[in-house]
Amino acid sequence: MKRRDALKNLGLATGFFVVTPAVISLLQSCTSDIKTWTPDFLTIEQSEALTKLVDVILPKTENLPSATELNVPQFIDKYINIVLDDDGQTQMNTAFENMISILKPNTEDRMDSVKEEDYKALLDDHMLIKDEIDEEREANPEASELTKSEFLNTLKFITIKAYLTTEQIGENVLVYDPVPAQYYCGDLQEITGGKSWSLGNTLVI
């Protein structure tokens, strides 16, 4: 299986992850407290790593909640468990284990011993940006496994997408318009104060 096919099967990569009513319903069903959360698919170690990672990607600020406060880790776990097929789940499990082996090279260590700086270093070292060469993919272009960069970019994308799709962000932070398919002519700064629209079917021209 080639990389494009692998990503397509995962349904997480940009262009393949679509916010449908079913996905929104799945996101809204994630209401458990992160401290008492028991993952459906991920192992305890994987869920701990995911929880720390998404908060490095989207940390709490003075005006905005963190990714974990909006149940993003629970959503990602449910998405993998419910939406992905067996091959996709295997790919994600392998990718998580590869990530943990970098964060915690000594298998005897506990996940809670991994510091925020370690997660930031992981992203800095392995999450490539556009036009940077993924040497792991170059070395094995036909491999079905996700490279570290592909996996981390996938997690970053779905973290941001899920965060922006939550009710709290959609209605209280972004500009919310419950009437679908309206068109507005003008400058975004003038119309919304520079804020993005909450609903993807609202177009500013």
Draw up the topology in text:
Layout: H1 3-10, H2 21-28, H3 44-57, H4 72-82, H5 86-103, H6 116-126, H7 135-139, H8 148-165, H9 167-172, E1 183-184, H10 188-192, E2 203-204
Parallel strand pairs: 1-2
Helix pairs in contact: 1-5, 4-8
Describe the structure.
- Residues 6-16 and 196-205 have low confidence and may be disordered.
- The chain starts with a helix and ends with a strand.
- A two-stranded parallel ribbon has the order 1-2.
- The chain is globular and about 45 Å long.
- The protein folds into 2 domains: 3-173, no CATH class; 174-205, no CATH class.
- It has 10 helices and 2 strands; from the N terminus they run αααααααααβαβ.
- By secondary structure, the chain is mainly α.
- Helix 1 crosses helix 5 and helix 4 (72-82) crosses helix 8 (148-165).
Low-pLDDT stretches: 6-16, 196-205
For the biggest β-sheet, the strand order reads: 1-2
Average the pLDDT over all residues and give the rounded result. Answer: 78
Tell me the number of structural domains.
2
Query: What integer value in Å does the Rg equal?
Result: 18 Å
Strand residue content: under 5%
Q: Which percent range fits the helix content?
A: 40-55%
Helix/strand/pairing category = mainly alpha
For the largest beta-sheet, the strand count, sense and barrel status come to: 2 strands, parallel
Notable features of this structure?
205 residues, disordered C terminus, mainly alpha, 2 domains, 51% helix, two-stranded parallel ribbon
